[in-house]
Design a protein that fits this description.
2 domains, 358 residues, Mago nashi protein, alpha+beta, 5-stranded mixed β-sheet
C-alpha cells in the first residue's frame, strides 16, 4: 500500500524513505479512460534517465487511462508499476538485480533486432501497444510496436517476475520478524490506556525554501465513542540553510512500531549553485515515542506534555538548535493552522512573521 505525504512543492520528491501518510486526502478513482492522458504516456517514453538500461511502457488499445511502466537501471534497480497519469502509481514492485542478472539482460538486449524504424505503428485497437527504450551496448534504441513482445523481452520480464516475487517474499518475512520483535519488546502497547497512536503527518514548504512546517497527527480512542479522535502529536517549524528538500519519510520504521521517525533530507548545491552536480545531502530526524509521549531530536528527548511545538534552526553546519515552546496545541490541525499558531505565539520574531506557505 502506497501512502502519500501532502507536499505543496513544485519539484520531485526523491524516493529515499518510505513515504508518510497524509490525513484527510480525498479518495479518488481516476482510472477512467481519457485520451488526453496518452500525452503523458509518450512524455514518459521520451524521458530517459542517465542510468537507464531498459524502459517498457505498455497498454491495451484504445488507451484506457493508465499504463504499465517497467524499468531497469544500470545500477541494478528494477521496478514495475501501473501509472495513472497525473494521479497515482499502483501495484509497485521492485528488486535489486545482481551483476550476473544484469549481464544476462544486457546480452538479451544486444540480440534484439527491429525491422521497422522508429517511432513505429500507432496503437491498434484490442492489441497490446508497447514503447521500448533500451541500450543495445552501443546506443539507445527507441521503438513502438503492437502485439506480443519479442522473445528476448519476454525472457527479461520472466527474470524480473522471479526477482520481484523473491523480493516481496523477503520483505514479508522481514515484516513478520519485525512484528514479533515489537510484540516481544512492548507487548500489546497499542491498546494501553491513554496511548495516542502515530498516524503520520503533513509537510509544507515555505516560500523562499528556507523553512518547513510539519504537522504530525495522532489517533486516540475516546471513552464512550466508537470513532477515534484525531489530534496533533507535535508541530515543528524548521529553518534551514540553502538546500533543496530531496525527501521526507519515516526512515524505514513500520507503522506498528511505537517509535516512529520523521526524516527530512536536503540536497546541497554545488559551489556553482547547481543541484545536479552535487549529491551531498544533510538530514534531520525526529523520533516520536507513543508509549512515553516524547520526541527525540539530535539525541535530546522532550516530554510532549510540556509543549508539543518546536522551532528548529539548522545551523550553517546543519546541526539543529531546538527550542521547545511551552505550548500544547493538541487539536487536529493543518500546516496552515500550525504556522498561524507559531505566528500567534512568536509575535516578536520577524523571521517567523514573514513566513508564507506555498
Amino acid at each position: 500500500m502506497i501512502i502519500r505525504i501532502n507536499m505543496m512543492i513544485s519539484f520531485l520528491v526523491a524516493v529515499l524513505f518510505l513515504p508518510v501518510i497524509a490525513l484527510g486526502q480525498e479518495q479518488r478513482n481516476d482510472a477512467s479512460p481519457d485520451p488526453r492522458k496518452l500525452e503523458w504516456f509518450y512524455a514518459d517514453a521520451n524521458y530517459r534517465p542517465k542510468t537507464l538500461l531498459l524502459k517498457l511502457l505498455q497498454f491495451t488499445a484504445p488507451f484506457p487511462g493508465h499504463y504499465q511502466n517497467t524499468l531497469i537501471e544500470t545500477t541494478g534497480n528494477a521496478s514495475t508499476m501501473l501509472i495513472i497519469p497525473n494521479w497515482a502509481d499502483r501495484g509497485i514492485r521492485d528488486a535489486k538485480l545482481n551483476d550476473a542478472l544484469l549481464a544476462q539482460i544486457k546480452q538479451l538486449l544486444a540480440e534484439l533486432k527491429f525491422s521497422s524504424a522508429p517511432p513505429g505503428p500507432e496503437p491498434l485497437k484490442g492489441h497490446l501497444h508497447s514503447v521500448l527504450i533500451f541500450h543495445d551496448g552501443h546506443d539507445f534504441v527507441h521503438v513502438n510496436f503492437n502485439g506480443p513482445v519479442p522473445p528476448q523481452i519476454a525472457a527479461i520480464l520472466a527474470i524480473l517476475h522471479k526477482e520481484f516475487k523473491a523480493t516481496a517474499q523477503a520483505r514479508d518475512e522481514e515484516i513478520a520478524a519485525y512484528q514479533k520483535r515489537i510484540r516481544e519488546t512492548y507487548g500489546d502497547w497499542e491498546n494501553r490506556p491513554g496511548i495516542t497512536l502515530n498516524r503520520g503527518g503533513q509537510m509544507h514548504l515555505c516560500k523562499g525554501k528556507r523553512a518547513l512546517v510539519i504537522w504530525w497527527a495522532g489517533e486516540r480512542k475516546a471513552a464512550g465513542t466508537s470513532s477515534p479522535v484525531i489530534s496533533s502529536l507535535y508541530h515543528a517549524l524548521i529553518f534551514n540553510p540553502e538546500g533543496a528538500v530531496a525527501g521526507t519519510g519515516n526512515g524505514g520504521r513500520r507503522g506498528f512500531d511505537p517509535v516512529q521517525s520523521y526524516v527530512a533530507l536536503w540536497t546541497l548545491p554545488s559551489p556553482s549553485g547547481s543541484y545536479e552536480e552535487n549529491t551531498s545531502q544533510r538530514k534531520l530526524e525526529i523520533l516520536h515515542n507513543a508509549i512515553d509521549a516524547t520526541v527525540t531530536i539530535a539525541g535530546k528527548t522532550y516530554q510532549l506534555t510540556a509543549g508539543n511545538m518546536f522551532v528548529i534552526h539548522m545551523g550553517a553546519d546543519w546541526q539543529p538548535t531546538v527550542t521547545q515552546l511551552n505550548e500544547v496545541f493538541a487539536e487536529r490541525s493543518t500546516p496552515h493552522a500550525t504556522l498561524d499558531r507559531f505566528k500567534a505565539i512568536l509575535k516578536d520574531d520577524a523571521a517567523v512573521q514573514k513566513l508564507e506557505l506555498y
